[in-house]
Amino acid sequence: PAAAEDFPFYLDKDAFKDSVLNHLHSTLGTIEEKANPQAWWKATCAAINERVFVGLSETHKAHSNIDTRAVHYLSLEFLMGRLTRNNLYNLGIFEPARDALAELGLDIEELCNEEPDMALGNGGLGRLAACFIDSLATLGYPAIGYGIHYEHGLFRQEFRDGQQIERPDSWRDYGNPWEICRPESIQKVPLFGYVETVFGNDGQLRKIWHPGEMVRGVPWDIPVVGYGGHTVNILRLWESRADDYFDWDVFNAGGYVDAQAEKSRAEAISKVLYPNDETPAGKQLRLTQQYFFCCCSLKDIVRRYKRRHDDFSQFAEQVVMQLNDTHPTIAIVELMRLLIDDEGLDWDNAWGICEKVFAYTNHTLLPEALEKWEVGLFENVLPRHLEIIYEINHRFLDDVVAKKWPGNDEIKRELSIIEEGSVRMVRMAYLCVVCCFKVNGVAQMHSELVKKDLFPKFYELWPERFTNVTNGITPRRWLKACNPELAQLYDDCVGIHWPTNLEMLKKVAEYADEKDFQQKFMAIKHKNKQKLATLIHDLMGIEVNPEAIFDIQIKRLHEYKRQHLNLLHILTLYRRILQDPNLDIQPRVFIFGAKAAPGYRLAKDIIFAINKVGEKINQDKRVAGKLKVVFMPNYRVTLAEKMIPAGDLSEQISTAGKEASGTGNMKFALNGALTIGTMDGANVEIREEVGDENIFIFGLTAEEVDLKLKNGYNSRDYYYNNPELKAVLDWLDSDYFTPNAPGQLSSIKHSLLDGGDPFLCLADYQSYIDAQQKVDETYRDKAKWAKMAIMNAACVGKFNSDRSIDDYVKEIWKLKQYPAVQ
Ligand code: 26W
């Protein structure tokens, strides 16, 4: 139980109950007899917020009094999930709140289910941002997250006859108790128009941008409560509004309709999150979103700085900005513009500042995911920024590239921020590398590939710029809050301080061989599996056996993540069972969760195929319950919190060299699942930590993948030389799984054979099947499996996001800790 001395906002059950009742009456304006669960939830949030807001203002005071250096985390995505439970745990008042609500006849689980998921992100990158701001607050660092206040987050997924359909997500329909509107900090954002060149009084050329349109950015602050409640930082999200849309002149001139149209155009900017991960949209609205939030955030930062300083000499001491992938790259250009056009600095001065304040994190090596924008789009939306980009490029090529490689025009073409071709493009990643003082990848292996494959010439130019920060996850959400029974077991074993010192769990490894501990550990896993089984039954009507192996793959749907390789394994087992009804295998439940980008045909076909194969298997009497396939709809943070504690086997099976890091792999291991995975991303480091004997590694290495592709990979060779693989693929292509509709599942086989199998599913097939066979054999030995599971949970302390933040602070941000509330 939380000790009052560790948690300054601790209050007991009775005090919490009074507070909830008080808010039910005076904030919600209702009474016990009339209140519905939503009103109770909101009253509870109001009771929590009484503490949160005190922490917020204390933190604000503390940080502005000392005028501290702060990190500004710029991200188009923050995948926060629900906040009620985490805020309660971080304040140390979960138990009193639970008991108080119970006395009021309320179940805290049910109450928490009233909260919609804050799904303002696609996947790994957005969730990483959420874990990072949790850690920053927990460690007491001055930090602010900047992003977009989307009206609609990532779409809600439904299945209709096995096909994904997308429905709008409306997370704020009935108000959100966690956000505070700050109209006093509204910013104006210029767009479109043209640039005029004038002579200033000093005889210097000056540029004046005459925007064609203005929109307003309205900030909404979400308090970010650190564990212990000693620091409450903010996440500031910008909402777009029309500038003076109620323009009386237009109105009186009969232009009411035009004014309304302008209003909807402006408000479209923050309307919806782009649901594509890995494939940039290339759309004007997306570039506008990026500029909109960067412009608002920079003006906010500069305004705050100028309250204390008369010139910009201290700016780079006070401010560091982390760019979460290339999505906020335009912030670099916007700061140049602000400093030169608005503040009157000269180029060298302005550039000198920019070079000290921006750092860039790369999250992907997939070439199609690297953002490029058509020059024409810039010309139209941000004409002044295009000029500045040209100037940055010009100076870079002439001053830097020409000095390093004199007379080499080929290399200039290669490194130019502008890609020449039939359509000229701005390469956003190059712009980042040219300006940022640090560029980091998100796992050791990924950071090596960033240097070697992605930016080799830049690495030659500036080797000291490139670094690694391995990703991490917050153990508060991903262990303490989502798996309270395991958390309790750890409290009993190693004391209560592991949530902020995850390496303490190492001590648990000492118990890995003890029968008694193994039993306790696996009993908790079993309970979590029962709970998930109930949820699956309630949501989908499918009966699954908690004794079976829970084999889970949850992540965005993408060819490189190879959900279809998993499917080939399922088909292989199904076929073997039909051929030999007495086949002795461990019962398994294959559980999936994944959203496909709405325009990604093959990804949607893979979802459909898994659903169809699942339907067949689940109702086939001959399978006798040995296999079940469950594709849970609408995978999101809240569902992950229920699935991960129940996992036995964690599927991390991307083509080596493609998954930058992965973070689901860390969450599973921490909750005692074993990994089956390739030598990719953070799997490599997980293997290092848990030991080769406690993980199932299979498949080609990244070097072998490259070599195969270079030497002309032919997937057909594998198809014709492996009868079981051939049979399984042909089977998928028949009408067995889609009676009366032959060919409905053909696109998968087609992509693997005619499409050339770009992610080498067929090359890795046999090795995967063999590794799965080993999983099956290992699971039969209960003690061995328990020991391996415990070793995984005990040994992955490295992957906590507090360690990631420490690495960022030491390598890049150079911050000091200032916990505000004692
Ligand atoms: C422009 C469209 C777009 C949107 C999002 C392109 C690329 C992205 C992200 C890079 C997708 C993403 O979430 N990447 C994941 O980032 C995680 C956090 O670092 C890593 O763990 C995953 O390996 C990486 O795929």
UniProtKB/TrEMBL annotation:
The keyword Glycosyltransferase applies. GO terms for molecular function: glycogen phosphorylase activity; pyridoxal phosphate binding. It comes from the Bacteria. GO terms for cellular component: cytoplasm. One of its GO terms (biological process) is glycogen catabolic process. CDD domains: GT35_Glycogen_Phosphorylase. Its cofactor is pyridoxal 5'-phosphate. Its EC number is 2.4.1.1. PROSITE patterns: PHOSPHORYLASE. It catalyses: [(1->4)-alpha-D-glucosyl](n) + phosphate = [(1->4)-alpha-D-glucosyl](n-1) + alpha-D-glucose 1-phosphate. The modification N6-(pyridoxal phosphate)lysine is found at residue 667. Belongs to the glycogen phosphorylase family. This is Alpha-1,4 glucan phosphorylase. Allosteric enzyme that catalyzes the rate-limiting step in glycogen catabolism, the phosphorolytic cleavage of glycogen to produce glucose-1-phosphate, and plays a central role in maintaining cellular and organismal glucose homeostasis. Phosphorylase is an important allosteric enzyme in carbohydrate metabolism. Enzymes from different sources differ in their regulatory mechanisms and in their natural substrates. However, all known phosphorylases share catalytic and structural properties. Keywords: Carbohydrate metabolism, Glycogen metabolism, Glycosyltransferase, Pyridoxal phosphate, Transferase. InterPro entries: Glycg_phsphrylas, Glyco_trans_35, Pyridoxal_P_attach_site.
